[in-house]
Amino acid sequence: MAESESTVINTDVKQKDPSEALVIAVTTRAIFNLEEEHKLYLEKGKEEYTRHQQANQNKPLSPGTAFAFIQAVQYVNEKILESNPEEKDLFDILVLSNNSPEGGVRIINSVKHYGLEISKFCFVSDEDSTKYLKSHGVKLFLSADRTDVCNALRRGVSAALVFHQEVQAPSTPLRVVFDGDAVLFSDETDQVFQEQGLEGALRYERAMEAVPMGEGPLKAFAMHLGKMRKKFSQEKSPIRTYLVTARSGRDMGIRAIKTLREWGLAIDEAFFMDGAPKGPILAQIQPHIFFDDGLHNIQGAQNVGVPSAWVPSCC
């Protein structure tokens, strides 16, 4: 292990095999509300931040944007193990922090306070903690820092930026919503649209209808999620996945559906919005997390209280 990395294991939680599990890394600011503490860190430095965390180590932090998502992931693990106690294809959560272990006691205590099934905590005294993601087998990284997210994407790890917001914890099952282009799929059609406009993009889609789209930054995560979902019948699955895309169903939907079919990725529900706002349909779905590459769509989701994660395409 590198000198700048310290990993703490929570022995109260069933250990997962990272070679078989779906490993999700989440930063402390993504899972807990640390906005005031982060402000203190920026204004007065790491030492003052650490002192504050030590002084409040027994005071649980309030939930952050990704908190409900992690709770729902835990629910999925419980249902999988009910079905097969020997199953190893589970979610494994890793909490990642750029701060020292001395300030991490409050994080661990907060996890235990809420009964979260988190086994590993990495406190990294390094500005770029993302270099450890692949060594931990991370398949999805959620952070409140854009630089972290861009670094992870460059390293080939699915990643998204979560924005702080007050969210209500939706009920189970786990509900995950993906945008299409530049999230599940590549941004090839978006590039054509930027260069040739809508008519050019439509011509391109018609010409390429039989050719599956390229992989987007979250395709690998979605595929593993889909594999876990197939352990259950559709009626009893603790996972529901959605595609909510700005594409027109009539003009651009066929290629998207054929691509999902070619990948073998089953989506429970698909909405082709033809450019209409996504907020109203997201409010109806009430997902635990919504991934999109458009900041205007993220804002629309936030306006209706939906936990959102931005997948930047311009890092």
Can you characterise this structure?
It is a single chain. The protein is α/β, with parallel strands linked by helices and 315 residues long. The protein contains 11 helices and 11 strands. The model has no long low-confidence stretch (mean pLDDT 90). The two termini are 29 Å apart. Strands 1-4-3-2-5-6-11-10-7-8-9 form an 11-stranded mixed sheet. Helix 2 (35-44) packs across helix 3 and helix 10 (279-285) packs across helix 11. The chain has helices at residues 28-31, 35-44, 46-55, 67-83, 105-113, 146-154, 188-207, 219-229, 249-263, 279-285, 295-303; strands at 5-9, 22-27, 91-97, 120-124, 138-143, 159-162, 174-178, 239-245, 269-272, 289-292, 308-310.
Number of strands: 11
Spans of at least 5 consecutive residues whose pLDDT stays below 50 are none
Give the helix proportion (percent range). 25-40%
Mind describing the biggest β-sheet?
A: 11 strands, mixed
- Class derived from helix and strand content: alpha/beta
Share in β-strands: 15-25%
**How far apart are the first and last residues' alpha carbons, in Å?**
29 Å
Q: How would you state the average pLDDT, rounded?
A: 90
Task: Write down the Rg.
Answer: 20 Å
What assembly state would you assign to the polypeptide chains in this entry? single chain
Cross-sheet strand order for the largest sheet: 1-4-3-2-5-6-11-10-7-8-9
Per DSSP, the total helix count is 11
